[in-house]
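Tip: read the tokens left to right.
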């Protein structure tokens, strides 16, 4: 029991560091700044659910998915890096689009899109997280890996749902500064993601 708990903590800590839900908070706050508290909670729930399902699916059948589509984790890393780079540049310039709501029918579609891309994929459940869960599955019992992923999903939901308290403490100016700082970090992460993908693809 103690050994299983120790393994759980190690796996959870590693996956938490890679998914980095805390780092996703500035992006989350930026794209949802025009939403009500209820709308932000809805996106937080959908983002956590999408990231959890994505990681579980890739943990269980990730290798077959990549083989079926003739792709690889390295190609996923390059594509995800390009997407994040574009987002990071928008954050640096302060032009990252926020969610706009005009009608209830449009709200559901918009929330779904934002929760899935870019928040859940590739910002949280990116190539690093996908590779990690696939490696976990190769050397640890499947039920334990699934429990770790579910725990990460709950953590993501809890952190993103608390963004309102963060915004109140930072204030409007503080949020803008944090978003631009995160934009710089995000662009560097994106470049590194592309570099890693190229290295892996060409076995450099």
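Filled-in amino acids:
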């Amino acid at each position: 029991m103690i050994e299983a708990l120790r393994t759980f903590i190690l796996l959870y800590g590693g996956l938490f560091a890679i998914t980095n839900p805390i780092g996703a908070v500035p992006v989350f706050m930026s794209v949802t700044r025009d939403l009500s508290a209820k709308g932000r909670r809805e996106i937080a729930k959908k983002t956590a659910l999408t990231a959890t399902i994505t990681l579980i699916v890739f943990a269980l059948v990730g290798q077959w998915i990549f083989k079926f589509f003739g792709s690889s984790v390295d190609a996923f890393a390059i594509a995800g890096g390009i997407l994040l780079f574009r987002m990071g540049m928008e954050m640096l310039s302060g032009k990252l689009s926020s969610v706009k709501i005009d009608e209830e029918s449009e709200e559901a579609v918009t929330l779904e899109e934002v929760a899935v891309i870019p928040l859940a994929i590739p910002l949280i459940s990116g190539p690093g997280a996908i590779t990690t869960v696939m490696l976990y599955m190769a050397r640890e019992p499947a039920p334990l890996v699934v429990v770790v992923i579910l725990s990460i999903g709950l953590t993501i939901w809890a952190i993103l749902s608390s963004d309102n308290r963060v915004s109140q403490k930072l204030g409007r100016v503080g949020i803008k500064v944090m978003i631009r700082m995160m934009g710089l970090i995000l662009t560097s992460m994106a470049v590194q993601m592309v570099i890693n993908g190229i290295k892996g693809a060409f076995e450099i």
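Residues 35 and 111 are 10 Å apart (CA to CA). The mean pLDDT is 80.
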